[in-house]
Every structure is written in structure tokens, then in C-alpha cells.
Amino acid sequence: MQQLTLRTFKTAVNKNKKGFRAFLTRLENKPPKNLDALAMIADKQVWPEVDCLSCANCCKTMSPTFNTKDLQRISAHFNMTVQQFKDKWLYYDKKDNDWMNKKQPCQFLNLEDNKCSIYPIRPDDCAGFPHLTKKKMTDYMHVHKQNIAYCPATYKMVEKMKDLVLINKRPQ
Fold it and tell me: Rounded CA gap, 90 and 171, in Å?
């Protein structure tokens, strides 16, 4: 299995993003009965082909949302009040009612090795990313549609789901 690099990923996204989003929409509108089981199979196939530390595209191009517990935990780590932490690094997105990073790449990303400087206490959004195997995949289709363009693991998952759904539809 060949690792998906950030360069080959961006090329593949440009070629396949529209078709992959259409596929996810079809799955969302008419999910197979075993969709979540297929997602678990795809998830296991994805990780040997994706190395997050060689990519970190999520940290370079996206912002996590910070929930109340994240704000308390991370600000305490820096011996700051929650308000000081917000003032220094975050802005409030009124449209989505979320606290988000002011800048990209993420202020906690070490660009030399693509490692998170607060990994043990990172935001819940980061800890769950890329959300490939949520219990009900149909509840996260909108997230997968967005993440195809940012995350090689999500891209690979959709690629593998297409194959699995096709195999699943074949008569036995």
C-alpha cells in the first residue's frame, strides 16, 4: 500500500472531490443497511496508507472549535484565565456560535515535525478528527463532505467506501 502524501492528496482531491461528494450525498439519502459496518472496515484500511505527522493539513488549514471544557483545560495549562486565552488566540464565530483559532496554521502546531505542542490536552474537536467512525455515519456525512478537501484520511475513507459499497451491491 502506498502512502498518500500531501502533494498526491491535493492532486487527487482536485480530480475527485465533486464525485466523492456526490457519492456521499447518495449514501446519505439512501444508506445501505450495513453502512456503519462498512465504515469500520474502511477505517481499518485507511490508516496503513495515511501518516498524519507527514501531513498535518488539518492543523495548517482548519480550525478546531473550542468547547467550554477545552477552554478551561487549555487555559489552565498555560496558567491563564479563559478570557486571557480567548483574547490571545481565539475569535468568536457568531454564525456557528464557536470559539476558533485566530490564525492558521494552528498556534500549537510545531511546523518542524508537524506535532501538536498541547497534544495530551488538545481540543476535543482535534482529538476526534477526522471523525471517520462515528456511531451513525449518516449523521456525519456533512462533515465528511467538507473534510474530503482537507484530510487524506477522509479522502481515503471515501475512496474505500466506494469500493466496499460496490462490492456489497454485487449479487452473491
Answer: 53
